[in-house]
Specification:
With 79 residues, the chain is mainly beta. The chain has a domain at 2-39. The protein has no helices and four strands. The chain has strands at residues 5-8, 11-14, 17-28, 31-39. The strands form two sheets. Strands 1-2 form a two-stranded antiparallel sheet. Strands 3-4 form a two-stranded antiparallel ribbon. The two termini are 24 Å apart.
């Protein structure tokens, strides 16, 4: 979601938020249930990079059951 991406003082901030009253079917402790819907922020590039490349990220891990990751994917998402 566009509103979950922000640049402030030269720092990229990606946020996770929930929409009041919106749910998705998910599994919690092995039981199918309606869970709060989560909105995420992400960025993507319009240009490919050539390997070998150096990429550095400083990531603040959330105190949540969600993954906080930095991914670099190939155009077909296989690598």
């Amino acid at each position: 979601m566009h509103e979950n991406v922000e640049i402030s003082d030269g720092v990229l901030k990606l946020k996770a938020t929930r929409v009041e009253g919106e749910t998705k079917v998910g599994t919690c402790n092995g039981v199918a249930t309606n869970l709060p819907a989560t909105r995420m922020g992400c960025i993507t590039s319009t240009k490919r990079i050539a390997y070998t490349v150096f990429v550095e990220a400083r990531v603040k891990i959330t105190n949540a059951y969600m993954a906080s990751d930095v991914w670099m994917l190939s155009p077909d998402d296989t690598q």
